[in-house]
Amino acid sequence: MVDMTRNDKNPRSGPNAVEVRGLVKHYGGTKALDGVDLDVREGTVLGVLGPNGAGKTTLVRCLSTLVTPDAGHAVVAGYDVVRQPRQLRRTIGLTGQYASVDEKLSGRENLYMIGRLLDLSRRTARSRADELLERFSLTEAARRPAMDYSGGMRRRLDLAASMIGNPSVLYLDEPTTGLDPRTRNEVWDEVQRMVAEGATVLLTTQYMEEAEQLADELTVIDKGRIIAGGGVEELKAKVGGRTLQIRPSDPAQLAAMAQSLRDAGLDGVGGAQAVPDEGLLYVPILSDAQLTAVIGLLGAGGFSLAHVATALPSLDEVFLAITGEKNTLPTGPVPQEVSA
Ligand SMILES: Nc1ncnc2c1ncn2[C@@H]1O[C@H](COP(=O)(O)OP(=O)(O)O)[C@@H](O)[C@H]1O
Ligand SMILES: [Mg+2]
């Protein structure tokens, strides 16, 4: 049985599996990494959240010895990325946004080949391949060529490939970008299982939701620089947590609803904003208790509600909140069109 609890891990204490200081990598005039500092505690997941072009893949490539940094240093599992590349490579696993499987080979052959490349004996490579196929629910498809696999199966095969050498530190570079929600959930389950078994993970993502699901700590990166960091809850609090989106049965009541929430002065509930064009009331909330209180208050006020939804802050909102620029309106995903 896999123990899925994460209570015994404190991201703020214990030894670091990854330590990065002042890491710089420039491509011509592009500052892909412009002085990055970060730590990942052993056995925890650090989410590196940032938009396209932020420098996430360059960071992962530097920490995998695939790219040599221009300045700064990084130590992974006790090995310096520049001075001890061979030792370092043996302790890490890497799964990229683009799966690295060989299309013509079967799932089993792919895993066997990687095992051999990692200097495992034939017998060990075979048993390790079978073990991982089983674990990633690919046993039935083991002998089919990877080109016949679905997107989710490929991604699982890619994750399995990154586990062949029993890495103690795993880099997952946008592991679910481009996947449908069901496949994305499969990948999340696998990552959670690896972490429960003790792996240290550096995960890059563009999705707040993914970071919230998987990460113990978050670092937000933009234009090669770290612009914020901390616990997931901390960061969510900083950006206002979720936004409650309420559609009244009668759009004419929007303003009155917003006013009644403001008058109530609910503890910790941010300003309610009515957006008549959308027929929606947006209320920033930080907890389930606040959500319940807002709905209760509106009900008690005699307002009739046609639809209620919550949205996590989008990456845009996170950036606006962090960089302190004026964020006039929540722009998170608007709920599906509503039938009253
Ligand atoms: N090999 C390269 N040559 C030139 N520019 C690059 C190279 N790799 C990355 N860059 C540039 O560095 C910046 C960061 O890229 P990248 O690390 O891939 O970001 P992300 O993975 O966050 O999308 C981008 O502006 C990108 O165009
Ligand atoms: Mg990338």
Explain how this protein is built.
- By secondary structure, the chain is of the alpha/beta class.
- The protein folds into two domains: 16-237, P-loop containing nucleotide triphosphate hydrolases (Rossmann fold, 3-Layer(aba) Sandwich); 241-323, Alpha-Beta Plaits, CATH 3.30.70.
- Helices cover 34% and strands 26% of the residues.
- It is built from eleven helices and 14 strands.
- It has helices spanning 56-63, 85-91, 107-117, 122-135, 151-163, 181-196, 208-214, 232-238, 254-264, 288-300, 315-323; strands spanning 16-27, 30-41, 45-49, 71-76, 79-80, 92-95, 169-173, 200-205, 217-222, 225-231, 242-248, 273-275, 280-285, 305-311.
- A six-stranded mixed beta sheet has the order 6-7-8-3-9-10, with helices on both faces.
- Strand 1 (16-27) and strand 2 form a beta hairpin.
- The chain is globular and about 75 Å long.
- The N and C termini lie far apart (46 Å).
- 41% of the residues are buried.
- The model is unreliable at 1-8 and 325-340 (pLDDT under 50).
- The structure holds adenosine-5'-diphosphate (ADP) and magnesium ion.
- Residues 56-57, 97, 173-174 line the site of magnesium ion.
- This is ABC-type xenobiotic transporter.
- Residues 18-248 form the ABC transporter domain.
- It comes from Streptomyces nitrosporeus.
